[in-house]
Predict the structure of Signal recognition particle receptor FtsY.
Amino acid sequence: WHDRLLSGFKRTSDRLTGNLVGLSAARLDEETLDEIEEALIASDLGPEMAGRVRKRLAAGQYERNMEELGIRLVVAEEVEKTLAQVAKPLEIEAFPRPQVILVIGVNGSGKTTTIAKLAHLFQEQDYAVMVAAGDTFRAAAIGQLKTWAERIGVPIVAGPEGGDAAGIVYDAVKKATEIGTDVLIVDTAGRLQNKRELMDELAKIRRVLGRLNPEAPHDVVLVLDATTGQNALSQIEVFKEVAGVTGLVMTKLDGTARGGVLVNAAEKYGLPIHAIGVGEQVDDLRPFDANEVARIIA
Ligand code: GDP
Protein backbone atom coordinates (compact mmCIF):
# COMPACT_ATOMS: atom_id res chain seq x y z
CA TRP A 1 0.00 0.00 0.00
CA HIS A 2 2.97 2.32 0.43
CA ASP A 3 3.52 2.15 -3.33
CA ARG A 4 -0.13 2.95 -3.87
CA LEU A 5 0.17 5.94 -1.61
CA LEU A 6 3.20 7.02 -3.62
CA SER A 7 1.14 6.90 -6.79
CA GLY A 8 -1.68 8.84 -5.15
CA PHE A 9 0.69 11.72 -4.52
CA LYS A 10 2.66 11.29 -7.73
CA ARG A 11 0.94 14.11 -9.58
CA THR A 12 1.65 16.45 -6.72
CA SER A 13 5.26 15.45 -6.16
CA ASP A 14 6.06 15.25 -9.90
CA ARG A 15 4.83 18.76 -10.44
CA LEU A 16 6.91 19.93 -7.52
CA THR A 17 9.99 18.16 -8.81
CA GLY A 18 9.47 19.42 -12.36
CA ASN A 19 9.03 22.98 -11.28
CA LEU A 20 11.76 23.12 -8.72
CA VAL A 21 14.44 21.34 -10.68
CA GLY A 22 17.44 23.46 -11.47
CA LEU A 23 16.49 26.18 -9.03
CA SER A 24 19.36 27.21 -6.91
CA ALA A 25 18.41 27.77 -3.34
CA ALA A 26 21.42 30.01 -3.05
CA ARG A 27 19.88 32.70 -5.23
CA LEU A 28 16.23 33.24 -4.55
CA ASP A 29 15.24 36.45 -6.26
CA GLU A 30 11.63 37.65 -6.46
CA GLU A 31 11.11 35.96 -9.81
CA THR A 32 12.29 32.60 -8.49
CA LEU A 33 10.14 32.97 -5.41
CA ASP A 34 7.15 33.62 -7.69
CA GLU A 35 7.97 30.46 -9.61
CA ILE A 36 8.18 28.41 -6.45
CA GLU A 37 4.90 29.78 -5.18
CA GLU A 38 3.24 28.96 -8.49
CA ALA A 39 4.73 25.48 -8.47
CA LEU A 40 3.20 24.79 -5.09
CA ILE A 41 -0.20 26.03 -6.17
CA ALA A 42 0.00 23.97 -9.39
CA SER A 43 0.74 20.94 -7.21
CA ASP A 44 -2.66 21.41 -5.50
CA LEU A 45 -1.09 22.36 -2.17
CA GLY A 46 -3.07 25.57 -2.07
CA PRO A 47 -2.28 29.29 -1.90
CA GLU A 48 -1.92 29.42 1.90
CA MET A 49 0.79 26.75 1.95
CA ALA A 50 2.48 28.32 -1.07
CA GLY A 51 2.50 31.68 0.67
CA ARG A 52 3.95 30.27 3.87
CA VAL A 53 6.77 28.49 2.06
CA ARG A 54 7.55 31.60 0.08
CA LYS A 55 7.72 33.70 3.21
CA ARG A 56 10.12 31.31 4.86
CA LEU A 57 12.36 31.15 1.81
CA ALA A 58 12.30 34.92 1.42
CA ALA A 59 13.35 35.25 5.05
CA GLY A 60 16.31 32.98 4.35
CA GLN A 61 15.14 30.27 6.73
CA TYR A 62 16.54 27.29 4.85
CA GLU A 63 19.74 25.49 3.90
CA ARG A 64 21.23 27.46 1.03
CA ASN A 65 24.03 25.11 0.14
CA MET A 66 21.79 22.25 -0.98
CA GLU A 67 20.40 23.55 -4.27
CA GLU A 68 16.73 22.67 -4.78
CA LEU A 69 16.82 20.14 -1.95
CA GLY A 70 17.00 23.09 0.41
CA ILE A 71 13.70 24.32 -0.96
CA ARG A 72 12.06 20.90 -0.83
CA LEU A 73 13.01 20.48 2.80
CA VAL A 74 11.17 23.67 3.64
CA VAL A 75 8.11 22.41 1.74
CA ALA A 76 8.27 19.06 3.54
CA GLU A 77 8.55 20.75 6.92
CA GLU A 78 5.70 23.15 6.35
CA VAL A 79 3.46 20.41 4.92
CA GLU A 80 4.20 18.18 7.88
CA LYS A 81 3.46 20.99 10.32
CA THR A 82 0.04 21.53 8.76
CA LEU A 83 -0.81 17.84 8.45
CA ALA A 84 0.35 16.95 11.97
CA GLN A 85 -2.32 19.25 13.36
CA VAL A 86 -5.13 17.39 11.61
CA ALA A 87 -3.99 13.77 11.77
CA LYS A 88 -6.44 12.28 14.28
CA PRO A 89 -7.79 8.74 14.15
CA LEU A 90 -11.49 8.29 14.91
CA GLU A 91 -11.72 7.41 18.55
CA ILE A 92 -14.35 5.38 20.30
CA GLU A 93 -15.32 7.00 23.55
CA ALA A 94 -16.03 4.89 26.63
CA PHE A 95 -19.47 6.42 26.94
CA PRO A 96 -22.21 6.68 25.73
CA ARG A 97 -22.96 3.58 23.71
CA PRO A 98 -23.60 3.23 20.88
CA GLN A 99 -21.30 5.89 19.54
CA VAL A 100 -23.00 7.10 16.38
CA ILE A 101 -20.89 7.97 13.37
CA LEU A 102 -22.76 9.67 10.55
CA VAL A 103 -21.01 9.27 7.21
CA ILE A 104 -21.73 11.86 4.55
CA GLY A 105 -20.41 12.65 1.08
CA VAL A 106 -21.45 12.78 -2.55
CA ASN A 107 -22.35 9.60 -4.42
CA GLY A 108 -19.31 7.87 -5.82
CA SER A 109 -16.91 9.39 -3.29
CA GLY A 110 -16.38 5.98 -1.68
CA LYS A 111 -18.81 6.41 1.19
CA THR A 112 -20.13 2.84 1.29
CA THR A 113 -16.69 1.32 0.93
CA THR A 114 -15.34 3.59 3.67
CA ILE A 115 -18.15 2.54 6.01
CA ALA A 116 -17.18 -1.09 5.46
CA LYS A 117 -13.52 -0.23 6.04
CA LEU A 118 -14.27 1.63 9.26
CA ALA A 119 -16.56 -1.15 10.48
CA HIS A 120 -13.78 -3.64 9.83
CA LEU A 121 -11.25 -1.44 11.62
CA PHE A 122 -13.41 -1.17 14.75
CA GLN A 123 -14.15 -4.90 14.65
CA GLU A 124 -10.42 -5.52 14.72
CA GLN A 125 -10.24 -3.32 17.81
CA ASP A 126 -12.83 -5.64 19.40
CA TYR A 127 -15.75 -3.25 19.27
CA ALA A 128 -19.24 -4.49 18.46
CA VAL A 129 -20.18 -2.68 15.26
CA MET A 130 -23.45 -2.14 13.42
CA VAL A 131 -24.19 -0.33 10.17
CA ALA A 132 -27.37 1.42 9.07
CA ALA A 133 -28.42 1.90 5.45
CA GLY A 134 -29.54 5.51 5.70
CA ASP A 135 -29.01 6.17 1.99
CA THR A 136 -32.54 5.09 1.13
CA PHE A 137 -32.52 7.04 -2.10
CA ARG A 138 -30.53 4.53 -4.11
CA ALA A 139 -31.46 0.84 -4.08
CA ALA A 140 -27.89 0.09 -5.15
CA ALA A 141 -26.52 1.79 -2.05
CA ILE A 142 -28.66 -0.36 0.24
CA GLY A 143 -27.67 -3.51 -1.64
CA GLN A 144 -24.02 -2.63 -1.60
CA LEU A 145 -23.95 -1.95 2.13
CA LYS A 146 -25.76 -5.24 2.73
CA THR A 147 -23.16 -7.09 0.71
CA TRP A 148 -20.33 -5.48 2.67
CA ALA A 149 -22.05 -6.14 6.01
CA GLU A 150 -22.42 -9.80 5.13
CA ARG A 151 -18.85 -10.07 3.92
CA ILE A 152 -17.31 -8.60 7.07
CA GLY A 153 -19.95 -10.02 9.40
CA VAL A 154 -21.58 -6.98 10.99
CA PRO A 155 -25.32 -6.59 11.63
CA ILE A 156 -27.13 -4.12 9.40
CA VAL A 157 -30.39 -2.24 9.74
CA ALA A 158 -31.90 -1.42 6.36
CA GLY A 159 -35.26 -0.64 4.86
CA PRO A 160 -36.81 -0.43 1.41
CA GLU A 161 -35.66 1.97 -1.29
CA GLY A 162 -37.39 5.29 -0.87
CA GLY A 163 -38.01 4.61 2.82
CA ASP A 164 -37.62 7.17 5.57
CA ALA A 165 -33.92 7.53 6.39
CA ALA A 166 -34.57 8.98 9.84
CA GLY A 167 -36.81 6.01 10.60
CA ILE A 168 -34.02 3.60 9.68
CA VAL A 169 -31.64 5.50 11.93
CA TYR A 170 -34.17 5.40 14.77
CA ASP A 171 -34.58 1.62 14.40
CA ALA A 172 -30.83 1.17 14.21
CA VAL A 173 -30.10 3.06 17.43
CA LYS A 174 -32.84 1.11 19.23
CA LYS A 175 -31.50 -2.20 18.01
CA ALA A 176 -27.88 -1.19 18.70
CA THR A 177 -28.78 -0.24 22.26
CA GLU A 178 -30.63 -3.52 22.75
CA ILE A 179 -27.80 -5.76 21.63
CA GLY A 180 -24.98 -3.76 23.18
CA THR A 181 -23.41 -2.29 20.07
CA ASP A 182 -20.40 -0.04 20.66
CA VAL A 183 -20.29 1.74 17.31
CA LEU A 184 -23.12 2.45 14.91
CA ILE A 185 -22.03 3.69 11.49
CA VAL A 186 -24.77 5.36 9.46
CA ASP A 187 -24.73 5.73 5.67
CA THR A 188 -26.57 8.77 4.29
CA ALA A 189 -27.74 9.97 0.90
CA GLY A 190 -25.27 12.09 -1.05
CA ARG A 191 -27.55 14.06 -3.31
CA LEU A 192 -25.78 17.36 -3.55
CA GLN A 193 -27.78 18.27 -6.65
CA ASN A 194 -30.75 18.65 -4.36
CA LYS A 195 -29.23 20.57 -1.51
CA ARG A 196 -32.48 21.57 0.17
CA GLU A 197 -33.78 18.00 0.41
CA LEU A 198 -30.43 16.69 1.54
CA MET A 199 -30.22 19.34 4.21
CA ASP A 200 -33.74 18.54 5.45
CA GLU A 201 -33.02 14.83 5.50
CA LEU A 202 -29.79 15.21 7.44
CA ALA A 203 -31.44 17.63 9.85
CA LYS A 204 -34.21 15.12 10.45
CA ILE A 205 -31.70 12.34 11.10
CA ARG A 206 -29.94 14.62 13.57
CA ARG A 207 -33.19 15.42 15.34
CA VAL A 208 -34.07 11.74 15.70
CA LEU A 209 -30.60 10.92 16.96
CA GLY A 210 -30.62 13.83 19.36
CA ARG A 211 -33.87 12.67 20.89
CA LEU A 212 -32.42 9.23 21.58
CA ASN A 213 -29.11 10.59 22.80
CA PRO A 214 -28.30 14.28 23.14
CA GLU A 215 -24.68 13.65 22.20
CA ALA A 216 -25.43 11.87 18.93
CA PRO A 217 -24.16 11.98 16.29
CA HIS A 218 -20.75 11.88 17.94
CA ASP A 219 -18.96 12.14 14.64
CA VAL A 220 -19.99 13.45 11.25
CA VAL A 221 -17.41 12.14 8.83
CA LEU A 222 -17.23 13.58 5.33
CA VAL A 223 -15.84 11.23 2.69
CA LEU A 224 -13.93 12.97 -0.10
CA ASP A 225 -12.61 11.55 -3.36
CA ALA A 226 -9.00 12.69 -3.78
CA THR A 227 -9.16 12.29 -7.57
CA THR A 228 -11.57 15.23 -7.79
CA GLY A 229 -8.88 17.73 -6.80
CA GLN A 230 -10.17 21.17 -5.97
CA ASN A 231 -13.74 19.89 -6.20
CA ALA A 232 -13.17 18.19 -2.88
CA LEU A 233 -12.68 21.60 -1.32
CA SER A 234 -16.03 22.91 -2.47
CA GLN A 235 -17.65 19.75 -1.13
CA ILE A 236 -16.25 20.52 2.31
CA GLU A 237 -17.76 23.97 2.04
CA VAL A 238 -21.22 22.67 1.13
CA PHE A 239 -21.32 19.81 3.61
CA LYS A 240 -20.14 22.03 6.44
CA GLU A 241 -23.16 24.14 5.67
CA VAL A 242 -25.76 21.37 5.25
CA ALA A 243 -24.59 18.87 7.84
CA GLY A 244 -21.79 20.12 10.03
CA VAL A 245 -18.61 18.10 9.62
CA THR A 246 -16.38 16.88 12.44
CA GLY A 247 -13.75 15.12 10.36
CA LEU A 248 -12.66 13.81 6.97
CA VAL A 249 -11.69 10.59 5.30
CA MET A 250 -10.04 11.04 1.93
CA THR A 251 -10.44 8.12 -0.47
CA LYS A 252 -8.72 6.95 -3.65
CA LEU A 253 -5.32 8.19 -2.57
CA ASP A 254 -3.95 5.55 -4.88
CA GLY A 255 -3.83 5.60 -8.65
CA THR A 256 -4.46 8.98 -10.17
CA ALA A 257 -5.32 11.00 -7.10
CA ARG A 258 -4.39 14.63 -6.71
CA GLY A 259 -3.11 14.06 -3.22
CA GLY A 260 -1.90 17.61 -2.72
CA VAL A 261 -5.48 18.71 -2.25
CA LEU A 262 -5.35 17.09 1.16
CA VAL A 263 -2.78 19.67 2.26
CA ASN A 264 -4.92 22.46 0.88
CA ALA A 265 -7.95 21.14 2.77
CA ALA A 266 -5.99 20.79 6.00
CA GLU A 267 -4.63 24.31 5.71
CA LYS A 268 -7.94 25.87 4.81
CA TYR A 269 -10.37 24.07 7.13
CA GLY A 270 -8.25 22.47 9.85
CA LEU A 271 -10.72 19.57 10.08
CA PRO A 272 -9.32 16.32 11.50
CA ILE A 273 -8.29 13.80 8.86
CA HIS A 274 -9.19 10.44 10.37
CA ALA A 275 -7.88 8.07 7.73
CA ILE A 276 -7.15 7.69 4.04
CA GLY A 277 -8.36 5.15 1.50
CA VAL A 278 -5.75 3.54 -0.71
CA GLY A 279 -7.76 0.84 -2.48
CA GLU A 280 -11.05 -0.95 -2.88
CA GLN A 281 -10.57 -3.70 -0.30
CA VAL A 282 -11.80 -3.61 3.24
CA ASP A 283 -8.32 -3.33 4.74
CA ASP A 284 -7.26 -0.54 2.38
CA LEU A 285 -7.88 2.15 4.97
CA ARG A 286 -4.71 3.61 6.43
CA PRO A 287 -4.19 5.83 9.44
CA PHE A 288 -3.17 9.26 8.31
CA ASP A 289 0.53 9.79 8.98
CA ALA A 290 1.60 13.41 8.56
CA ASN A 291 5.31 12.69 8.43
CA GLU A 292 4.94 9.93 5.86
CA VAL A 293 2.73 12.01 3.58
CA ALA A 294 4.98 15.07 3.87
CA ARG A 295 7.99 13.00 2.86
CA ILE A 296 6.12 11.53 -0.10
CA ILE A 297 5.00 14.96 -1.33
CA ALA A 298 8.28 16.83 -1.08
P1 GDP B 1 -20.42 5.80 -2.67
O1 GDP B 1 -21.30 6.00 -3.87
O2 GDP B 1 -19.91 7.10 -2.15
O3 GDP B 1 -21.00 4.95 -1.63
O4 GDP B 1 -19.10 5.11 -3.22
P2 GDP B 1 -18.62 3.60 -3.21
O5 GDP B 1 -18.21 3.19 -1.86
O6 GDP B 1 -19.63 2.76 -3.90
O7 GDP B 1 -17.31 3.72 -4.09
C1 GDP B 1 -17.33 4.14 -5.44
C2 GDP B 1 -16.21 3.44 -6.19
O8 GDP B 1 -14.96 3.86 -5.67
C3 GDP B 1 -16.24 1.93 -6.02
O9 GDP B 1 -15.87 1.34 -7.25
C4 GDP B 1 -15.17 1.67 -4.96
O10 GDP B 1 -14.59 0.39 -5.08
C5 GDP B 1 -14.17 2.76 -5.27
N1 GDP B 1 -13.35 3.15 -4.11
C6 GDP B 1 -13.75 3.49 -2.86
N2 GDP B 1 -12.71 3.82 -2.09
C7 GDP B 1 -11.59 3.68 -2.85
C8 GDP B 1 -10.17 3.87 -2.63
O11 GDP B 1 -9.70 4.27 -1.54
N3 GDP B 1 -9.35 3.62 -3.69
C9 GDP B 1 -9.83 3.21 -4.90
N4 GDP B 1 -8.94 3.00 -5.87
N5 GDP B 1 -11.13 3.03 -5.13
C10 GDP B 1 -12.01 3.25 -4.13
Summary: The CA atoms of residues 46 and 264 lie 5 Å apart.
